[in-house]
Amino acid sequence: MRSWAALPTGKVVRLEGAGPLPLAVDSLPREAPAILTCTAREARSPKALASAILDELDATVLGLFPAWLPDAEGIDGPGGAGLAAVRTLALRTAATSAHFGPFLAELAARALRARPGRLPDLRASLSPEIRPSGFPPEVRAAGLARALAAAFSRPGAALLVDVPEGLSPAGQEALVAAGEWLAHRAGLGIWLSGPLPAVDRVETVLVAEAPSQAASRPEQQITPGRTGHPPVAGRPHPASAAEHALEAALSGCAWAAGRAWNQTIHPGALASPVRADLVWQDEWCVVELDGPDHRELDKFTTDRARDVRLQIAGYAVLRFTDVQVLTDPQAVVRHIELFLRNRRVSQEG
Question: Which of 36, 172, 257, 314 is deepest in the core (most CB within 10 A)?
Fold first, then answer.
């Protein structure tokens, strides 16, 4: 039985015992690669599937900017000055790393044009100015894999694929062949979780269940054919329009200083860690943004249990729906401001 950190990159393997997806990536050791999750789907050919995966990875990497180019935080400027600056920064970064300079510079420029807030869901409609350029697929694959690893400060990257029951033999073959191409060209680990009776050339690896997997909530729901990933600590999730809208509303408020997005909180030595959407640690205040799935019984019950663990540890938990944030962000901001001001007064007293 192998640990997650010991699973191979640069090849395709089938996992046995991986447990349900998506994976609680935060609980994995730092030596493990950055792991993205997706669900396999029928494809016309390995080439078509590999191309579709590259487009999904491209959108994911754009949304993670500037996590993979940290010094680009705050770069902007009139008349294209920001684009020139971010290209220069990318080239300098590539000169002292494994990145390919021209690709990283082009990727950074496209990411700056697609800053979160203007296009929070890049998959919905890629405008011509942020569509992938003419780099060959091999260059794109390797460059995107390096950017993903850099975004999460991991030594590499892997794609954890949920293989559903009923995938046709042709679909299984296309999936494995596309995975082999990605593994060879990009060095990605392609980890398949599910039945593959039609393909006998893939090694099966027994893997230990990720620690705290059962206790941690999924970071992003998996949609067939879409990649999912955990948020980068300290930033709004690239796939959450509500998180970006709230951050935009808070960014000009002096009283909102001290906030931190997507933090892992440890309520106690024996308690399971909790991922908080937004936290003011000094005020012991957690803000959670709930999408429609939080109304489902299982998620609602899990949310209440999380709230109780946080409250026992001394945190106050404020919950708002995505709809509230997207339709009237200023009202949400006023509620948070009132709570924090009252909290600070009571702390000073």
Answer: 36
Residues 6+ apart with CB under 8 A from 323: none
Place of tokens 């007293």: 349
Helices (H) and strands (E) in the chain, counts: 9, 9
3-class DSSP assignment, residue 12? strand
| In a shared domain, residues 40 and 155 | yes
Whether residue 269 is contained in a domain is answered as yes
**CB of 39 within 8 A of CB of 222?**
yes
Residue span of the structural domain in which 52 resides: 4-206
Report the pLDDT value the prediction gives residue 126, as an integer from 0 to 100.
47
**Total number of domains constituting the chain:** 2
Residues 245 and 171 in one domain: no
> Torsion angle of alpha carbons 157, 162, 166, 168, nearest 10°?
0
Angle at 100 between CA 11 and CA 30, to 5 degrees: 50
Give the residue with greater pLDDT, 285 vs 237. Answer: 285
Token representation of residue 320: 């708002």
Residue 65 corresponds to which tokens in the numbers above?
């900017």
pTM of the entire predicted model: 0.69
Rg (CA), the chain: 21
Supply the pLDDT for residue 225: 42
* Domain membership flag for residue 235: no
Judge contact between 118 and 244, C-beta under 8 A.
no
Residues 243, 325: Cα–Cα separation, whole Å: 8
Are both 146 and 288 inside the same structural domain?
no
d(CA 221, CA 219): 7
Q: Are residues 159 and 115 in the same domain?
A: yes
* pLDDT tens, residue by residue, 212-244: 433 333 333 333 344 556 666 777 886 688 998
Q: What percent of the chain has pLDDT over 90?
A: 46
Q: Confirm whether 254 is domain-assigned.
A: yes
Residues 151 and 47 in one domain: yes
**CA pair distance 193, 163, nearest whole angstrom:** 6
Q: How high is the mean pLDDT of the chain? A: 82
36 pLDDT band, cuts 50/70/90, is confident
CATH number (domain holding residue 326): 3.40.960.10
Give the alpha-carbon dihedral of 226, 229, 235, 239, to 10 degrees: 20
